[in-house]
Amino acid sequence: MDPLGRAQLLEFLKKEFSAENLSFWEACEELRYGEQSRIAEIVDSIYQQFLAPGATRWVNIDSKTMERTLEGIKTPHRYVMDDAQMHIYMLMKKDSYPRFLKSELYRNLLAEAVIPPETKKRVFPFMRKQRHSSPSP
């Protein structure tokens, strides 16, 4: 959700030659939440960029997921890329993202982070001890 964090993750993925995974995930989000009138256009764009044979930003998904996705894009709809998107998400979650969290890029991002003042308050202010407690009548 953090634009700066996402930009740093993208930079990290570029260095690892896997930036297409995040780009694919973002394109699928655009499909899911974008304009209804552009669904067929967005599905075609995702296919051409990431899934077609010889695609310039090809993503590596398993054959069953590819089969279901290719069958689904014959009748494009908002959720046609869900299986493929989840596959790529899990790859990033289990592999790329943990490495990013250990990277110099991430450490620098944390070092430059601004901590909002509201986080300095007590975590659970409603759990304060009452100063004058009296037993119930």
TrEMBL record:
Membrane-spanning ranges: none
Source organism superkingdom: Eukaryota
Entry keyword set: Signal transduction inhibitor
A GO cellular-component term linked to this record: plasma membrane
Gene Ontology MF terms in the entry: GTPase activator activity
GO BP term, example: negative regulation of signal transduction
Residue ranges of every copy of the RGS domain listed in the record: 1-110
Cited InterPro entries: RGS, RGS6/7/9/11, RGS_sf, RGS_subdomain_2
Protein name: RGS11 protein
Organism of provenance: Alectura lathami (Australian brush turkey)
The organism's taxonomic lineage, starting at the top: Eukaryota, Metazoa, Chordata, Craniata, Vertebrata
